[in-house]
Amino acid sequence: MESKLNFQSLKEYSRKFAQISCEGYFKDNLKINGREILKFSTIHQINSLILKKLFENWQLESEKFNSPYFNYSSAQVQLALKRFLNVLSNNIEIDQKHFQLLVEEAVFDCLLLIFSPYDFYRNELINGFSNPHLTSGLNQLVKYIRINRHLGEDLLNQLQQHQNENPDLEIALKIFDKVVEDTADLPDEIDQHLSTFNEICPLEEDSIYLETKPSENENISDQNDHHWEIGTLNDKLKSESAPSLAEIHQFKAIDNIENSLTVNQQFMFINELFGGDEPQFSKALKDLENFDNYDAAISSLKESYGAANNWDFESEEVKELFGLISKKYN
Length: 330
What we know:
Blueprint (H helix, E strand, L loop, with lengths): L1 E4 L1 H20 L4 E2 L1 H6 L4 H19 L12 H15 L4 E2 H20 L1 H12 L5 H9 L6 H13 L7 H14 L7 H11 L8 E4 L17 H8 L7 H6 L6 H4 L2 H11 L4 H11 L5 H13 L9 H14 L1
Antiparallel strand pairs: 1-4, 2-3
């Protein structure tokens, strides 16, 4: 017997979770904006995945910008579109009906990241393979991920090494299987995430898995059969005495703060610390690259931007930004 995810049960749970969460928020609000999405759920990965869905919708909309008369691919136009996206991000307004669908999808993806990161990344790889810029798409994806992010980063690194070979989907999937097999990082603790979900909507662990006998006639090409044996990754990597994944990456050094930002962090910093002023935020990031040490960088940031924007230096946003600066200079 082998443990496999009960996808139907996870989908039903995602619907219930989304309904409970949205009923609580929209009881006192007609619509939700971008700033509130960042705080919508206490499970921050869900908020990031909601933003991911919104960005994907924007990409679909931007694909309509195509004309025999104008060059939408020029650098100048692309820069203008990026600025336009920043303006749109400050004017997000979604009603309950449409937002609940986004939450439902985000919750399901979040559960996959927790209980079967293999399925999550494999599905993203399959769905994104039609994109001629696969590696840039994966690079964008990883910036939304907090849970089991290391698999996405390792996959991206391996695909970048094979980029000149233009690997087809079958080869890309084999590369990912090798990444999973060779990874030295530990998976996130399942119990911790399970507890967080239970605070909002009870999630029975028994309902997550199916006990099934392997079938000789099982069609491995069927997308519904792309299951991951849940115990395999955890049993291979997990050790009671080993540090958690969060502890491993907490002090991982970074070379450039801007390039290391997740989309969620960028959105949060711009809106919460810089009053929606994207040019001011960009200037601050450039300034942060020019100091000799952490203390000098922090002192300048406080003087140049903290006072002007009335920062609460005990807030989560400020502490997270200072943490990134620490990774660069310490």
